[in-house]
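Database export, one record per block. Field names are fixed; values are copied verbatim from the stored entry.
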Amino acid sequence: MLNKLYRNMSVEEFEKGYFYATELKAFAKELGIDVGTLRKNEVEDHIKARLSGSDDTPLPKGVPNRKTSGSRDRLSPDSYIVNYVSDKATKTFLKEEISKRDPDLKDKSGQWYWLNDWRKEQIRNNRKITYRELIDRLYELMTTKGRLPRIPSTRFNNFITDFLVAPENEGATRQEAMDEWERLKKIPVQKNYQEYKKFLNKTA
């Protein structure tokens, strides 16, 4: 397993390794990248651009949750989002508002990620939004037919899902999938189920 980040590594080497968020942020700072509030996958995008020499490629910018040094927003549908806090209190408030519309509506995998993604996109576009708009967006996500898009760079979750739904692994447990993920982390291939299968077929 490639477990060392270094300045002259190739993008291919980078993608075949597995690194934790703290390691990636430290490496990004070493490369002169301002990580700010960037997510792990966004930090990875910046690092790959720097390693490939394509820094002119449009890349995501960090979006701070707070615009002022004041207290957190009042949790009300009509409040504007200024000092947002992504915590249990906020999620409980949003879910309570959703329950007023449909008390039987179930959570959907990825809803919080994509809700936060939408909120940050509005801020990047200088849109002033209310919590009511955030509630509307959450409702849209929760009522979307089928699965929501995959979350970028959640390679662990994607691998577990792909492993368990693959016909050849019918009856496998989540623990077995997790054990195989730990095995994949040590293999010098991209960290997804497809590359894992190719590797197994080559070594069979």
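Remark 1: Residues 21 and 40 are 6 Å apart (CA to CA).
Remark 2: The chain has a mean pLDDT of 87.
End of record.
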